[in-house]
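Recall the central idea of this unit: under ordinary conditions, the amino acid sequence of a chain determines the structure it adopts. In this exercise we apply that idea directly, starting from the sequence alone.
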Amino acid sequence: MSLIYNMVNKDTKKTGRNKKTGRNKKKDTKKTGGNKKRNRENPLSSPDRTGVKKGKTKSRDKIKPTEGESEFESYHSVLVHLLGTQDIYQKIVKTSNTAVSVQEVKHKNANPTTPAGMFDPIIYFYTPKDQQATHYRVYFNADYNMGRRISKRWITIDPYDLYQKPLSQGFCQMFAYFIAVNDVKEFIDKSKIQEINKEEEIDIHKKNMYECLKKTLKLIKNIKMNEKKLYDEIVTEFEDIKQEPEYGIPDNMTFDDFISDLEKFEIIDLNVMFNEMYSIN
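Accordingly, the structure predicted from this sequence is:
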């Protein structure tokens, strides 16, 4: 498992409505600097992006972005909120057919509990009291080269160190999932690159988020085909989120519509989010 060996000597030390779900609330556009109305392309209404000619099919309603929010950000915040539901997330992890488990820790720098004889990866998270920035990491029992012999020790692998912008919000739970099940070949590991300028870093983080989105949508499709009960629970949770006005989900949008819309986004549609992300921090 090359990821573990690469990390072992480093030893690095819109997502929850409440502590039970571990999700973060949809971002406040005023806090992100997005409080001015901007004209942005709607990737879901452009004929050449959807492949549907005007006049052929009656368009249905899309998620309505909040002021200053791009189309992609509006969909992304709903998806992150949905996947941050702990009951659903833990069941998604179980579909991997691995021994990966999920734990919540009580303090920001606390490590998860490791029962005697347990050596399987643990995805763990901490929910602050303000419940605004739940973050997921992975605990690995990895081989450690001590020169003449190889020993074992637990190490923490943080998606921020490998694939994401530190302190950014969104998809850390899915990055943690793919790390834990060792399904990361599509991601660019920035820790392996000696020198990265700001533009290169932005490009890496953007590509990783887009790949994570595609992998997550593929996972949801597999769940639909093979885990009907879990898929129905995801659909039910989506219907619950529709009742929260700040997400702007139209009443006539189904979960399948939502996934179909997400599949139409291209990497260029992440530009606004990343421009704001780097202008603030």
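DSSP finds ten helices and four strands in the chain.
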